[in-house]
Design brief:
Blueprint: H1 2-22, H2 32-41, E1 45-49, H3 54-65, E2 71-74, H4 80-89, E3 96-101, E4 104-109, H5 111-122
Parallel strand pairs: 1-2
Antiparallel strand pairs: 1-3, 3-4
The structure holds glutathione (GSH).
């Protein structure tokens, strides 16, 4: 039974990935200098995610729109980042934004909170 649920979930996920690829929003354009500054700030951020999870796709679309080439960590079963997310973030739920600031690490769950945070910081 769970085999069929996974099959359907993966099929739906792949369709959403394809729809996302053909309907990408326009990228925010910054001056070269401003983009360099943004990219230097991205060094302290990473997105823990599943490739075909709708909430992760929604978050990746926002990254694309805001022109934020952020490091992404796959948290599928067997991935080294899955355990890191569970142990340090507190639970396996994606997307999750890892934010490093002043030597401290914050783990932000919930796609809407992540998008709001990125929009406020980088728009
Ligand atoms: N309300 C959350 C929902 C996130 C969510 O349900 N993510 C699922 C994947 S689509 C998840 O991480 N499930 C845990 C698992 O698959 O182990 C959000 O908007 O980020």
């Amino acid at each position: 039974m769970s085999f069929f649920i996974n099959l359907i979930r993966n099929a739906v996920g792949s369709i959403i990935v394809a729809l996302d690829l053909i309907s990408r929003p326009r990228k925010l354009k910054r001056s070269e200098e401003a983009q360099k500054h943004v990219e230097s700030e991205l060094a302290s951020l990473s997105l823990y995610q599943f490739y075909s999870c709708p909430f992760c796709i929604k978050t990746r679309r926002a990254l694309h729109r805001l022109n934020l080439p952020m490091v992404k960590r796959n948290v599928s079963r067997g991935s080294q980042y899955r355990q890191e997310l569970a142990e340090q973030g507190g639970k396996i739920q994606a997307p999750c934004l890892r934010i490093e600031k002043d030597g401290k690490v914050e783990w932000m769950y919930e796609s809407s909170d992540i998008i709001n945070y990125l929009e406020q910081r980088f728009n």
